[in-house]
Amino acid sequence: MSDVKKPFCRPKIADGKAARVTTRQKEIVPGQFFVGYETIWEPAQKEVAYQTPKRP
Fold it and tell me: For residue 25, what are the domain limits?
C-alpha cells in the first residue's frame, strides 16, 4: 500500500444569498487551506439623475 496522501482541498459551496448580500466562494487552489470569499452588495437606494429645478 502506498502512503501518498492526497492534499486537502476545500469543497465547492453554493452562493449564499440574503436580503441585499450575495457571497461567492473564490476559485479553489488545491493544497491551500484558506479559500477566499467575495461579497456583493446590492444598492439600498436607487440613484436618480439630477434635474435642475424650473425657474419662476
Answer: 14-43
